[in-house]
Amino acid sequence: MTNVTRLTIVGGGSWATALVKIFAEGGLQITWLHRNAEAATYIQKHKRNRNYLSFLELDFNNISTTHLAQEAIAASDYILFAVPSAYLAATIAEWKDFDFTGKKIIVSIKGVVGEQHVVPSIYLAQFFNVDADDILVIGGPCHAEEIALQRKTYMTIAGKDKQLTSQLATQLNSPYLRVIDNNDPLGVEYAAILKNIIGIAVGTASGMNYGDNFIAVLVSNALREVKAFLHAVDDVPRDLTQSAYFGDLFVTAYSEFSRNRTFGKMIGRGYNVREAQAHMNMVAEGYYAVKGIYAIAQAKQLHMPIVAAMYRVLYNQASPYVEFQLLEQSLS
């Protein structure tokens, strides 16, 4: 099987920037799609994203930028979506007539989409009328900042096509990056969504000055919630101790690079949602994810007290202090 050679990356944030770095270093010709001409032109000229990971200078030998969506889609055989879930529907709203024949979709979005609360891979499959089983999913555990700094990183590529995921993993491996292939794209996608909610919960606890002892119990209970949720929505054999699942959760819960933990910490310190969002230059996907995951849990009658508590705090303006007092009595 020949190497993947042409890839379009949709998104201009820190994670999209890190993915551009990884795939360009893997030898792919990258077309990087931005929302507007100004951003595309600036990055092409200065070789860096001034809004995200601005310290990172990219090698533009095989990177080109554009704001023209149809041009970007036509340029590549593989299309990687790395926009926040809250903006995915608006991003592709006018793409219905684009020709996706023979193109492979890759998803690296960590939230649910629309009122039906579907994962991005399913939303894209329905929108473009492609088979969801053909879509690849990129998971962690990894932060964009550490990729930019070339700190030792592990990343997951999940898909049903074992030959393709193995090939991409081999193609992208580098001295600082090890890519692990995985055959459970839906599980990896849901785990990446759930871990952001847990990251907010841990950050909230930290913001209210809970210590490591309580947070350890909070996280261990969160692991049970993740396990129960995955069992309910997609009951297939999987080892949740693999890094794509609980490893991704741990880095989001504990790392100071975690935007979801940072967002939660501000909530714990008394900021309301709008104030916390205004203080962040990046989107905390967990805020949007908690609404969808809570709705799914309710529909399936799942007992998920941490998810429920964060939903009440973020969407019903419940007091974090009261909710965590209640959690103290239910955790074990």
TrEMBL record:
Matches recorded under SUPFAM superfamilies: 6-phosphogluconate dehydrogenase C-terminal domain-like, NAD(P)-binding Rossmann-fold domains
Binding-site list for NAD(+): A144, R259
Recorded superkingdom: Bacteria
GO molecular-function terms, A-Z: glycerol-3-phosphate dehydrogenase (NADP+) activity; NAD binding
GO cellular component, as recorded: cytosol
Residues of the Glycerol-3-phosphate dehydrogenase NAD-dependent C-terminal domain: 184-320
Positions of the Glycerol-3-phosphate dehydrogenase NAD-dependent N-terminal domain: 7-164
Active site location: K195 (proton acceptor)
Record keywords: Lipid biosynthesis, Lipid metabolism, NAD, Oxidoreductase, Phospholipid biosynthesis, Phospholipid metabolism
Catalytic activity reported: sn-glycerol 3-phosphate + NADP(+) = dihydroxyacetone phosphate + NADPH + H(+)
GO biological process: carbohydrate metabolic process; glycerol-3-phosphate catabolic process; phospholipid biosynthetic process
Binding-site positions, substrate: K110, R259, N260
Protein EC: 1.1.1.94
PANTHER family: GLYCEROL-3-PHOSPHATE DEHYDROGENASE, GLYCEROL-3-PHOSPHATE DEHYDROGENASE [NAD(+)] 2, CHLOROPLASTIC
Family recorded in the similarity comment: Belongs to the NAD-dependent glycerol-3-phosphate dehydrogenase family.
Name this polypeptide is given: Glycerol-3-phosphate dehydrogenase
